[in-house]
Amino acid sequence: MEATTTKIPAEAVDLYTRYIHGEVSRRDFFGGVSRFAVGGLTVTAIVEGLMPNYALGQQVAKTDERITASYETVPSPDGNGFIRGYLVRPFSADSRSETPERLPGVLVIHENRGLNPHTEDVARRFALENFMAFAPDALTSVGGYPNDDYRGGQLFGQVDRERMTSDFVAAARWLKNRPDCTGRIGATGFCFGGGMSNNLAVLLGADLAAAAPFYGGAPAAADVPKIRAAMLINHGALDTRLVEAYPEYEAAMQSAGITHEGHLYPDSVHGFFNDATPARYNKAAAEEAWTRTIAWFNQYVRES
Fold it and tell me: I need a labelling partner for 93 at 20 to 30 A (CA). Which of 141, 184, 237, 246 fits?
């Protein structure tokens, strides 16, 4: 799949971002898209480029013989009671034995529509990099991801944020304490999931070895000194609001002596890693960010 951000204006992508964040209505989104239908670019082409096509973006099939996967339910007494998620490990001869190989873990956190197929696919990609990955579904308490991103966004707004955060803390600690985990975990996520990765770094302290948030909001500056994880920050250079906010976060990490790197990817918008949304996806930037993320987790999560 080739990057398509040069074909659809960044302003149209920003409109989609505001739509999926609930800042504009469905009607206003579709009405606003028509402003960008110029120069042979049709409304249909814009909408198709912005809306997710999960089959198009899939890189690792659910039936891939190189992985073993299951849906697991994690107790969350301080949250919504429990949270369900997708657990993936690389397949090996002892994958299903009573004492499988212990692997470092990665928590993979979705955007603000729930555990959709793209996020599950990212979890499978981590398994192929020899991590065990767990992708929780924040929508568990309202029935789970409904196989529709618009409806997922509506349900997302119904979940209490503090309880949702507690659910992710529970999921991270469950992953860390599994007997088939080395006890070292990282977190990554996208949009909402990027912000949650940042917040988990604050809340988990030394229990989180590293985080690699993608286009996520920063934690409060006063909380940054609580971070003990090595932080790899990924933003699209055209993602104006987050790019403008990043220097304050960077300065706070620098002041607190936190191991960190920050990267702004050229010609990339919010959601540039998501290959299921062609208009947002930037292939070169996504591949570079993925390579950096794997190297970061290999250094700070796999190595003690």
Answer: 184
